Amino acid sequence: MPEASQNVRARLEHRSENAFTEEERQGLMLAAKTRTIALVILLVWQVIDNPNSGLAYALSLFILTVFIALGLLQFLCARWRFHMDLLKYLFVAMDCALLAAALTFENPFSDVGRPPPYAMQGSTFSLFFLFLMQTAFSFRQRLVMWCGACIVAARTGMLLWVVNQPGVFTNIDLPERSPQVFAQALADPNFVHLGHWFIEIMASLIVAGGLAVVVGRSRRFVTDRSLSERARANLARYFSPNVVDRLSRSKALLGAVREQDVAVLFVDIIGFTKLCEKEPAENVIALLRDYHNRLGQTVFDNEGTLDKYIGDGLMATFGTPEPGPNDAGNALQCALDMTTALDAWNAERLASGDKPVRIGIGLHYGPVIAGDIGNERRLEYGVIGDTVNIASRLEQLTRQLNTPIVISDSLVVAIDKTSDANMAISNSFAEAGVQHIRGREGGIPVWVLEVEPAIDH
Prior knowledge:
The chain has 457 residues and is an alpha+beta fold. Helix content is 59%, strand content 16%. Strands 3, 4, 5, 6, 7, 8, 9 and 10 form an 8-stranded mixed sheet that branches. Strands 1-2 form a two-stranded parallel ribbon.
């Protein structure tokens, strides 16, 4: 990949990272809000339906209130952007640690006793996955993996505390591994099956890893999609829609330098300075925008490339970035369409009391060098060469020959003899002989538009 392309991608990825940071903040706020609402509903239910009483009842509600407060704190920190780079990891660790403590330690005020292995029941372990869901909202792979690691650490800490309580034993402590002994152990409330813990740990790691992969793929998809859409939008500024579609599907580099034959068109407003000398600046800008929009559209309608706007002028090429069989014909048809569009625009301007606009168009066909022009900070696709200079001089020649369009004989020769453009030459153009071109030794034979072109579209 060329260095310029790498730099463009790097800048886009930096902007995407900033966008993901904002989406992460919004996601964490949404997850914290959802979690808080769910816990508030659970708290209301516990107020109504709680088997405990007295201090045991108050403690169970207090634990839920702590989780609600943590959710609110996470929401506020994300909303205020308060040290979230560090706090988001701290909040995940606190959630896992507090849930592990709540599941492990028995309510000291409760009259109902339960054996320590009760904390390792699989049904209670599923609560940890709520935290994984919450971190997935962040679009951060590292946060998801951090949550998985915290769950593993919390659950392992619970196991270590439980197996070290008096009377608790595991399958490793069994005198023999027979089915009968194992079945008898399962019926004992003080028995802990280490295989269940191992499955929980593996499930946590697999789910966390899977979510991290999904998040990573989503981020890459969004970044690549943004790069593709940005490239497509840039192409749409210069190329016709069908060319944009073709270039978007192509894997070839647009900016690769090549020499090829193209048709070059220059168009300019005649007497622009005089036309606008007494007009306010905003009126001049409005005129240019209307002018560029109308004439630029004719370029796209004829499969041309809008090379650049030059003040009150416009340069277009036909046959870039890929040459076609009717580039010269498309260029001529574009010139005719421009005069038609100008007639319609002038009718509107006259109806509103504005002065009409006159244009001069020059067309030439020949070899150019095409490719990216500029440096790594700003690249533009363009063409250079003698063909470009001649097309510009032909546009200036329209004043001398008093015609809206001057085309070179090279363009006429390149036009398909069976095309509509060739018919237009026969009906509307006349040979104007060899004309001297400034900056070029000798002259070139040219053709000029004699009559108003018919509307073809």
